[in-house]
Amino acid sequence: ETDVCTNCHTHDTGFTPPxxxxxxxxDTITDCTLCHDGGTYVLGATLDNNKCLACHDGVTATLxxxxxxxxxxxxxxxxxxxxxxxxxxxxxxxxLASFTANAAGxxxxxxxxxxxxxxxxxxxxxxxxxxxxxPHETDVCTNCHTHDTGFTPPxxxxxxxxxxxxxxTVCHDPGTxxxxxxxxxxKCLACHDGVTATEADTHFPSGSECVDCHxxxxxxxxxxxxxxxxxxxxxxxDTRIRAQQILAMPSGxxxxxxxxxxxxxxxxxxxxxxxx
Length: 276
Description:
Layout: H1 49-55, H2 75-78, H3 105-108, H4 185-191, H5 243-248
Protein backbone atom coordinates (compact mmCIF):
# COMPACT_ATOMS: atom_id res chain seq x y z
CA GLU A 1 0.00 0.00 0.00
CA THR A 2 1.36 3.42 -0.94
CA ASP A 3 -1.16 5.55 0.97
CA VAL A 4 -0.51 7.28 4.28
CA CYS A 5 0.88 4.61 6.61
CA THR A 6 -1.06 5.81 9.65
CA ASN A 7 -4.34 5.18 7.86
CA CYS A 8 -3.85 1.52 8.82
CA HIS A 9 -0.96 1.55 11.31
CA THR A 10 -2.21 4.03 13.85
CA HIS A 11 -0.08 5.65 16.56
CA ASP A 12 -2.57 4.68 19.28
CA THR A 13 -1.97 0.98 18.55
CA GLY A 14 1.81 1.34 18.45
CA PHE A 15 1.75 1.18 14.65
CA THR A 16 0.82 -2.49 14.76
CA PRO A 17 -0.71 -4.12 11.67
CA PRO A 18 -4.48 -3.53 11.71
CA UNK A 19 -6.53 -6.19 13.51
CA UNK A 20 -9.40 -5.94 11.05
CA UNK A 21 -10.20 -9.35 9.63
CA UNK A 22 -12.63 -9.99 6.81
CA UNK A 23 -15.88 -11.79 7.53
CA UNK A 24 -16.11 -15.60 7.58
CA UNK A 25 -14.75 -17.51 5.66
CA UNK A 26 -12.25 -14.94 4.43
CA ASP A 27 -11.16 -14.20 8.00
CA THR A 28 -8.51 -16.92 7.75
CA ILE A 29 -6.54 -14.92 5.19
CA THR A 30 -3.56 -13.19 6.82
CA ASP A 31 -1.96 -11.86 3.62
CA CYS A 32 -3.99 -8.80 2.67
CA THR A 33 -2.46 -8.74 -0.81
CA LEU A 34 -4.42 -11.91 -1.72
CA CYS A 35 -7.43 -9.60 -2.12
CA HIS A 36 -5.95 -6.10 -2.18
CA ASP A 37 -3.67 -4.10 -4.43
CA GLY A 38 -2.22 -0.76 -3.47
CA GLY A 39 -4.95 1.84 -3.18
CA THR A 40 -7.75 -0.63 -2.40
CA TYR A 41 -7.47 -0.56 1.39
CA VAL A 42 -10.39 1.83 1.66
CA LEU A 43 -14.09 1.44 2.36
CA GLY A 44 -16.05 0.38 -0.72
CA ALA A 45 -12.96 -0.20 -2.85
CA THR A 46 -13.44 -2.09 -6.13
CA LEU A 47 -11.21 -5.14 -5.96
CA ASP A 48 -9.71 -6.71 -9.06
CA ASN A 49 -11.83 -9.71 -10.15
CA ASN A 50 -8.63 -11.64 -10.80
CA LYS A 51 -7.99 -11.53 -7.08
CA CYS A 52 -11.30 -13.31 -6.42
CA LEU A 53 -10.94 -15.80 -9.27
CA ALA A 54 -7.43 -16.77 -8.18
CA CYS A 55 -9.01 -18.63 -5.26
CA HIS A 56 -12.51 -19.26 -6.62
CA ASP A 57 -11.24 -21.75 -9.20
CA GLY A 58 -13.20 -24.82 -8.12
CA VAL A 59 -10.24 -26.22 -6.19
CA THR A 60 -9.24 -23.72 -3.52
CA ALA A 61 -12.75 -22.29 -3.27
CA THR A 62 -16.13 -22.54 -5.01
CA LEU A 63 -15.87 -22.11 -8.77
CA UNK A 64 -17.33 -18.82 -9.95
CA UNK A 65 -17.14 -16.67 -13.05
CA UNK A 66 -17.76 -12.97 -13.50
CA UNK A 67 -21.16 -11.93 -14.78
CA UNK A 68 -21.38 -12.30 -18.54
CA UNK A 69 -22.67 -8.78 -19.08
CA UNK A 70 -21.66 -6.05 -18.58
CA UNK A 71 -18.10 -7.36 -18.91
CA UNK A 72 -16.68 -4.76 -16.55
CA UNK A 73 -18.89 -5.78 -13.63
CA UNK A 74 -16.79 -6.41 -10.52
CA UNK A 75 -17.41 -9.13 -7.94
CA UNK A 76 -17.40 -6.42 -5.29
CA UNK A 77 -20.24 -4.61 -7.07
CA UNK A 78 -22.54 -7.30 -5.65
CA UNK A 79 -20.53 -8.81 -2.80
CA UNK A 80 -18.86 -7.40 0.30
CA UNK A 81 -16.64 -10.11 1.71
CA UNK A 82 -15.02 -7.80 4.24
CA UNK A 83 -18.12 -7.15 6.29
CA UNK A 84 -21.03 -9.35 7.28
CA UNK A 85 -24.10 -8.65 5.16
CA UNK A 86 -26.58 -10.40 7.42
CA UNK A 87 -29.35 -11.28 6.99
CA UNK A 88 -28.13 -11.73 3.38
CA UNK A 89 -26.22 -14.85 2.42
CA UNK A 90 -23.23 -15.20 0.08
CA UNK A 91 -22.10 -11.74 1.16
CA UNK A 92 -24.57 -10.13 -1.23
CA UNK A 93 -24.63 -6.47 -0.32
CA UNK A 94 -27.67 -5.50 1.72
CA UNK A 95 -27.66 -2.20 -0.15
CA LEU A 96 -28.13 -4.07 -3.42
CA ALA A 97 -31.01 -6.42 -2.69
CA SER A 98 -32.49 -8.79 -0.16
CA PHE A 99 -31.05 -12.28 -0.57
CA THR A 100 -31.66 -14.23 2.59
CA ALA A 101 -32.21 -17.71 1.12
CA ASN A 102 -31.56 -19.64 -2.09
CA ALA A 103 -34.05 -22.49 -1.85
CA ALA A 104 -36.85 -21.20 -4.09
CA GLY A 105 -37.17 -19.23 -7.29
CA UNK A 106 -38.75 -16.32 -5.46
CA UNK A 107 -35.57 -15.95 -3.41
CA UNK A 108 -33.87 -14.84 -6.63
CA UNK A 109 -36.64 -13.20 -8.66
CA UNK A 110 -40.36 -12.63 -8.23
CA UNK A 111 -41.16 -9.91 -10.84
CA UNK A 112 -41.06 -7.25 -8.17
CA UNK A 113 -37.92 -5.76 -9.72
CA UNK A 114 -36.14 -5.76 -6.36
CA UNK A 115 -34.72 -9.26 -5.94
CA UNK A 116 -31.04 -10.09 -6.45
CA UNK A 117 -31.48 -11.33 -10.04
CA UNK A 118 -33.66 -8.38 -11.01
CA UNK A 119 -32.18 -5.29 -9.46
CA UNK A 120 -29.58 -4.72 -12.21
CA UNK A 121 -31.56 -6.06 -15.18
CA UNK A 122 -32.46 -3.03 -17.27
CA UNK A 123 -32.89 -4.70 -20.66
CA UNK A 124 -33.82 -8.33 -20.02
CA UNK A 125 -37.04 -9.85 -21.28
CA UNK A 126 -37.56 -11.78 -18.06
CA UNK A 127 -37.35 -10.56 -14.48
CA UNK A 128 -36.18 -7.00 -15.12
CA UNK A 129 -35.89 -4.23 -12.55
CA UNK A 130 -39.15 -2.61 -13.63
CA UNK A 131 -41.17 -5.60 -12.48
CA UNK A 132 -42.74 -5.94 -15.94
CA UNK A 133 -40.83 -8.94 -17.27
CA UNK A 134 -42.48 -11.66 -19.33
CA PRO A 135 -43.52 -14.96 -17.67
CA HIS A 136 -40.61 -17.32 -17.24
CA GLU A 137 -39.44 -20.40 -15.37
CA THR A 138 -40.17 -20.02 -11.65
CA ASP A 139 -37.64 -22.48 -10.24
CA VAL A 140 -34.29 -21.51 -8.68
CA CYS A 141 -32.52 -19.27 -11.20
CA THR A 142 -29.10 -20.84 -10.66
CA ASN A 143 -30.40 -24.28 -11.68
CA CYS A 144 -29.97 -23.06 -15.26
CA HIS A 145 -28.02 -19.80 -14.95
CA THR A 146 -25.01 -20.96 -12.93
CA HIS A 147 -22.42 -18.75 -11.30
CA ASP A 148 -19.56 -20.75 -12.86
CA THR A 149 -20.77 -19.71 -16.33
CA GLY A 150 -21.36 -16.07 -15.41
CA PHE A 151 -25.13 -16.62 -15.23
CA THR A 152 -25.36 -16.94 -19.02
CA PRO A 153 -28.47 -18.56 -20.49
CA PRO A 154 -27.91 -22.32 -20.70
CA UNK A 155 -26.31 -23.52 -23.93
CA UNK A 156 -28.34 -26.72 -24.15
CA UNK A 157 -30.17 -26.81 -27.48
CA UNK A 158 -32.66 -29.51 -28.32
CA UNK A 159 -31.82 -32.16 -30.88
CA UNK A 160 -32.27 -31.50 -34.64
CA UNK A 161 -34.56 -30.03 -35.94
CA UNK A 162 -35.71 -28.39 -32.70
CA UNK A 163 -32.23 -26.97 -32.08
CA UNK A 164 -33.12 -23.83 -34.04
CA UNK A 165 -35.32 -22.56 -31.23
CA UNK A 166 -33.88 -19.75 -29.13
CA UNK A 167 -37.09 -19.07 -27.21
CA UNK A 168 -37.47 -21.90 -24.70
CA THR A 169 -41.10 -20.94 -24.05
CA VAL A 170 -42.08 -22.22 -27.51
CA CYS A 171 -41.97 -25.69 -25.94
CA HIS A 172 -41.78 -25.03 -22.21
CA ASP A 173 -44.03 -23.60 -19.56
CA PRO A 174 -42.71 -22.75 -16.08
CA GLY A 175 -41.93 -25.92 -14.18
CA THR A 176 -41.14 -28.00 -17.28
CA UNK A 177 -37.39 -27.29 -17.54
CA UNK A 178 -36.52 -30.66 -16.05
CA UNK A 179 -35.72 -34.09 -17.48
CA UNK A 180 -38.81 -35.93 -18.77
CA UNK A 181 -41.12 -33.02 -18.01
CA UNK A 182 -44.72 -33.44 -19.13
CA UNK A 183 -44.76 -30.91 -21.97
CA UNK A 184 -48.38 -30.23 -22.95
CA UNK A 185 -49.24 -31.46 -26.44
CA UNK A 186 -50.70 -28.05 -27.24
CA LYS A 187 -47.12 -26.75 -27.36
CA CYS A 188 -46.22 -29.36 -30.01
CA LEU A 189 -49.37 -28.87 -32.05
CA ALA A 190 -48.86 -25.11 -32.21
CA CYS A 191 -46.04 -25.81 -34.71
CA HIS A 192 -47.03 -29.25 -35.98
CA ASP A 193 -50.01 -27.90 -37.87
CA GLY A 194 -49.06 -28.98 -41.38
CA VAL A 195 -47.76 -25.51 -42.25
CA THR A 196 -44.97 -24.64 -39.86
CA ALA A 197 -44.03 -28.29 -39.33
CA THR A 198 -45.30 -31.76 -40.16
CA GLU A 199 -48.95 -32.14 -39.23
CA ALA A 200 -49.52 -34.25 -36.16
CA ASP A 201 -52.27 -34.99 -33.71
CA THR A 202 -52.34 -36.45 -30.25
CA HIS A 203 -52.85 -40.16 -29.71
CA PHE A 204 -56.52 -41.08 -29.76
CA PRO A 205 -56.84 -42.11 -26.06
CA SER A 206 -57.42 -38.92 -24.12
CA GLY A 207 -54.76 -38.01 -21.58
CA SER A 208 -51.80 -39.09 -23.72
CA GLU A 209 -49.12 -36.48 -24.45
CA CYS A 210 -46.73 -36.30 -27.39
CA VAL A 211 -43.76 -36.60 -25.03
CA ASP A 212 -45.07 -39.91 -23.73
CA CYS A 213 -43.69 -41.41 -26.95
CA HIS A 214 -41.29 -38.76 -28.25
CA UNK A 215 -38.25 -37.02 -26.77
CA UNK A 216 -37.41 -34.09 -29.07
CA UNK A 217 -34.83 -32.72 -26.63
CA UNK A 218 -32.37 -35.60 -26.94
CA UNK A 219 -31.36 -37.79 -29.88
CA UNK A 220 -32.92 -41.25 -29.64
CA UNK A 221 -30.12 -43.04 -31.47
CA UNK A 222 -31.39 -45.82 -33.72
CA UNK A 223 -34.96 -44.58 -33.64
CA UNK A 224 -36.69 -42.28 -36.09
CA UNK A 225 -38.88 -39.23 -35.29
CA UNK A 226 -37.53 -39.07 -31.74
CA UNK A 227 -39.42 -42.16 -30.61
CA UNK A 228 -38.10 -42.88 -27.14
CA UNK A 229 -35.62 -45.76 -27.14
CA UNK A 230 -36.96 -46.71 -23.71
CA UNK A 231 -40.39 -47.24 -25.30
CA UNK A 232 -39.59 -49.37 -28.33
CA UNK A 233 -37.50 -49.77 -31.46
CA UNK A 234 -38.65 -47.82 -34.53
CA UNK A 235 -36.47 -47.17 -37.56
CA UNK A 236 -39.08 -45.20 -39.46
CA UNK A 237 -39.49 -47.53 -42.44
CA ASP A 238 -42.43 -49.63 -41.17
CA THR A 239 -45.36 -47.69 -42.60
CA ARG A 240 -47.55 -50.67 -43.55
CA ILE A 241 -47.86 -54.05 -41.96
CA ARG A 242 -50.04 -57.10 -42.19
CA ALA A 243 -51.62 -58.96 -39.30
CA GLN A 244 -49.46 -62.07 -39.79
CA GLN A 245 -46.33 -59.92 -39.54
CA ILE A 246 -47.41 -58.55 -36.17
CA LEU A 247 -47.04 -61.91 -34.44
CA ALA A 248 -43.58 -62.34 -35.96
CA MET A 249 -42.31 -59.10 -34.46
CA PRO A 250 -40.39 -59.08 -31.18
CA SER A 251 -42.13 -57.74 -28.11
CA GLY A 252 -41.67 -54.00 -27.77
CA UNK A 253 -41.71 -53.18 -31.49
CA UNK A 254 -43.72 -50.24 -32.71
CA UNK A 255 -45.04 -51.06 -36.16
CA UNK A 256 -47.10 -48.05 -37.03
CA UNK A 257 -46.53 -44.45 -36.06
CA UNK A 258 -48.13 -42.20 -38.65
CA UNK A 259 -48.94 -38.69 -37.47
CA UNK A 260 -50.93 -37.78 -40.57
CA UNK A 261 -54.56 -37.38 -39.48
CA UNK A 262 -55.70 -36.54 -43.01
CA UNK A 263 -54.67 -40.01 -44.16
CA UNK A 264 -55.42 -42.28 -41.23
CA UNK A 265 -55.92 -42.41 -37.50
CA UNK A 266 -52.80 -42.21 -35.36
CA UNK A 267 -51.83 -45.61 -33.98
CA UNK A 268 -49.22 -46.69 -31.51
CA UNK A 269 -49.52 -50.45 -31.12
CA UNK A 270 -47.14 -52.49 -29.03
CA UNK A 271 -47.10 -56.28 -28.84
CA UNK A 272 -46.57 -56.93 -25.16
CA UNK A 273 -46.46 -60.75 -25.29
CA UNK A 274 -47.11 -63.71 -27.61
CA UNK A 275 -50.68 -63.80 -28.86
CA UNK A 276 -51.48 -60.12 -28.13
